[in-house]
Amino acid sequence: MTNGWIDIKNTDMMLIMGGNPAENHPCGFKWVIEAKKTRNAKLIVVDPRFTRTAAISDLFLQIRAGSDIAFLGGLINYALQNNRIAKDYLLHYSSAALLVNEGFKLPEDGFYSGFDPASQSYDRTTWNYAVGNTSGKPVAAPTGPPGHLPTPFPVPLMPEKVAYDLTLQHPLCIFQLLKRQYSRYTPEMVERITGIPKEQFLKAADLFTSGRKDGDMKKVATVIYAVGWTQHTSGTQIIRTAAILQLLLGNVGRAGGGVNALRGHSNIQGATDMAGVFDSLPGYLKVPVPGDTDFKTYIERITPLTVKPAGWESFNYYSNTPKFAVSFLKAMYGPSATKENDWAFHYLPKVDRNFAWTQIWDNMFRGSVKGMFAFGMNGVAIGPDSQKNIEALKKADWLVVGEIYPDETSEFWKSPGITTEEMTQINTTVYRLPAAGFAEKDGTFVNSARWLQWKNVALPLPGEAKLDQEILATIFLKVRELYKKEGGKFPDPILNAWWPYTVPHNPSLAELAKEINGKALADLTDPKTAQVIKAGQQLPGFSWLKADGTTLSGNWLYCGSWTEAGAMTQRRGTDDPSGLGLYPNWAWSWPANRRGMYNRASCDLEGKPWDPSRPQVWWDEGKQAWVGNDVPDFKADSPPKDHMGPFIMNQEGLGRLFAWLNDGPFPEQSCGQKTQDRSRQVRRSRRRLQRHLHHLQTHRALSLLDKEQPDERAAHSRSLRRDSGGTGERVGHQGQ
Amino acid sequence: MNGSRRDFLKVSALSGVGLTLLGFDLAPAYAQLRELKMARASETRSTCPYCSVSCGVIIYTIGDKAKNVTPQVIHVEGDPDHPINRGTLCPKGASLEQDIMNPRRLMKPQVRRPGSDHWEDIPWSQAYDEIARWTKKTRDASFIEKDAQGRTINRCEGIAWTGGCTDTNEFNYLVVKTMRSLGLTYIENQARV
């Protein structure tokens, strides 16, 4: 979430799509109700199903699954055509005024410029900002979401100075391109693709954009979504469409606004932050690729350089990437990571292709993945194809499951349909290790609002169960022993992984949390304030991180969560002085305990809140600093007259209406993988149906024996029960 | 919340004192009656492990400080101080007690041997030794130091890690430290799925 759960109460308008929080996040959903009650906020729900969230909406639109971009694109078009946009915000905080290269072409014939049929991908050279008047030399500039892998055609180098047109009239300015791109998304087209009647769509479009009538900037709308968006092959583009819409309306960075992912489970956000996925390192650092022949090459590739219109400023916070990367390697390899050995850079494996979830199972199925650890993850029961995962596990040599309950993954070898005879053919060794439940371990979860909350141990482990970290640490140390004794392939990273824990085979989560926060390895002095951090002390925040090996931090994003003052994640202050629901002293929120991201954008160009009744941060002329109820998400001493962009994590400092995704700089409704797979799916489901009918027929034969129960459904359930040794009579009765 | 549960108990006890006017003292009986199991339970603040709202919960345990007594969770309820859920829990969260104290919990390490149709118990030490042996064997067999162009990749392609959504941040960090050091790139999590 750019904002947070409680912040929903500050909104005037809600669009919930691809999520059903009334049922799936009930205690967070109370803030939706709160907004409706206290602010008379309106709720629009767009979903293929009439859900419980839809049941309390002011407007429910039933959408054809997979047509989300068509709907959102229609909203963008409506806002542009009816002048329901945040003009100043758009002009100064987004990339609307920037000009794009002359060779760029919109997909009016189905393709953007640069399509290469041979590789079925885009050469993105023309998808670039045009060079501005002063010093137009291009700068090496990786863009796109963190962790993006090399593609046949890399992202183009962006010019250091970008051309722009503040009148927004130039035919190649992003605003005009956006307007042209979405001019095709008429209410008629929306109706045709989404199945939402034109009148209903227009009603929703009018309602959602009503806050920007007559150029008013006070009202705020929020977009809330969940896996109904993300679990599409075009998921990223759906969310980008929402982001464009919210930038157009000037809703990002504001209380009650933003683009808010509900996330699914208790620590999905944390697992993403901590690089639970193959293509990132903690704190969204990009993974090294084979082309990164040394640390310098890696750092140059992943550190973005500033790109901006001449005369504007950009903080480009990711220019600090070298500090984050070196501090991470120091946490990983401690004294073994030195300047001389490139901070042990080559201890990290290099990634050159997709190693994601489906690839794991595919390659296990094909025989190259031989062993698997599954900790708290039931791979057979989730994901698109359980049967394939079972077949894959049959081919593995070994599987180690750390769980608290028996699950389908650990028992794949006796899953339904496998006979005892067949089991003799399955040669996988499976270890099932009893691990700790949530109440038996401490540590932090991160919720959707980016809050890190420490939980405490409530009771000891049952039976012989052990803490997850003890199991993992012991296995690792045993492997290390083997490499020490016997040698083997490249043992260096295993032997040199920094292991400073008091009980080596059972590191406490508190120790790990402190390491994640980071500490000073030498005395550090802040040149401005003369504040000194002694060697060995916990760092107060990521601004202290250094690229010279004098700091370590397991995840720069969490730096500040466990300082010398103790665990910020354990704080329980219930004060909320601003009334905005920020609760600055409750637990800790990344980054830097900031509750609302991009909050500089909540102010106008002079640094005054767009809505004085919901002040988040503001420019204090006397102090010459940004101050406020929340921690400013900005360079604290950059005066408004410097025109620094509020989106400090982007090179331009501007919200990107135009971005470098593989399939296009603007999202486009397309049939996507889903429809391509449709025919295959139809065939498969037809086969399934046939099997099911066959099953029913078999059981109908049984049901004929029982004249009292002609109902097929009851007979089916009864015979199932009979198979499992129950009494058919009773179940059959219940079946009615 | 105005007045804690203990205040309520005190008031109840006092009203018992009033009854001595009847000629017999009911106070001890009332006191005993009001000595709820909950009153001597330990309260532990925790976080619900289900959805991403991360509601604050209070776990009430008894027997956790006594010797020779199996600690029991007797109740789980929403934390009234928590700014988001404010004491409420959804039906799933309200049943957390059954997640913690559950007869289906795994109690011992087990192994299923190749070709076998059943689980066997295995001592922890043996399980660790065998897993470490497997890990080394598979890593050594599948480790690639250089790619076709001779560039260093130091990757182990034979082992995968799949993590869950209730793994803590600290544990996930340990996963990065150990698994990346082993050279794994097949590292995935519920965060992807």
In short, what is this structure?
By secondary structure, chain A is α/β, with parallel strands linked by helices. Chain A has 22 helices and 27 strands.
Keywords:
heterodimer, A: 736 residues, alpha/beta, five-stranded parallel sheet, three-stranded parallel sheet, 27 strands, globular, disordered C terminus, B: 193 residues, alpha+beta, 3 domains, three-stranded antiparallel sheet, three-stranded mixed sheet, 6 helices, 8 strands, elongated
List the helices and strands and how they pair.
The complex is a heterodimer of chains A (736) and B (193).
Chain A: E1 13-17, H1 21-24, H2 26-39, E2 42-47, H3 52-55, E3 59-62, H4 68-81, H5 87-93, E4 115-116, E5 121-122, E6 138-139, E7 158-159, E8 161-162, H6 174-183, H7 187-194, H8 198-209, E9 221-225, H9 227-230, H10 235-248, E10 259-261, H11 268-273, E11 280-281, E12 285-286, H12 295-302, E13 308-309, H13 321-333, H14 357-365, E14 371-375, H15 386-395, E15 398-403, H16 420-423, E16 429-434, E17 443-446, E18 451-455, H17 468-486, H18 492-496, H19 509-517, E19 519-520, E20 524-525, E21 532-533, E22 551-552, E23 562-563, E24 566-567, E25 588-589, E26 617-620, E27 625-628, H20 672-703, H21 712-723, H22 728-735
Chain B: H1 5-18, H2 27-34, E1 42-47, E2 56-62, E3 72-78, H3 91-94, H4 96-100, E4 110-112, E5 120-121, H5 124-142, E6 143-146, E7 152-163, H6 169-182, E8 184-189
Parallel strand pairs in B: 7-8
Antiparallel strand pairs in B: 1-2, 2-3, 4-5, 6-7
Helix pairs in contact in B: 1-2
What does this structure look like?
The complex is a heterodimer of chains A (736) and B (193). Chain A is an alpha/beta fold. Chain A has a domain at 674-735. In chain A, α20 (672-703) packs across α21. Chain B has helices spanning 5-18, 27-34, 91-94, 96-100, 124-142, 169-182, and strands at 42-47, 56-62, 72-78, 110-112, 120-121, 143-146, 152-163, 184-189. Chain B has 193 residues and is of the alpha+beta class. In chain B, the strands form three sheets. Chain B has a three-stranded antiparallel beta sheet with strand order 1-2-3. In chain B, strands 6-7-8 form a three-stranded mixed beta sheet. A two-stranded antiparallel ribbon of chain B has the order 4-5. Chain B has three domains: 1-35, no CATH class; 40-102, 2-Layer Sandwich (Phosphorylase Kinase, domain 1), CATH 3.30.200.210; 110-189, no CATH class. Helix content of chain B is 33%, strand content 24%. Chain B is elongated, with a radius of gyration of 27 Å. In chain B, β6 (143-146) and β7 (152-163) form a beta hairpin. The interface between A and B is large, with 147 and 112 residues.
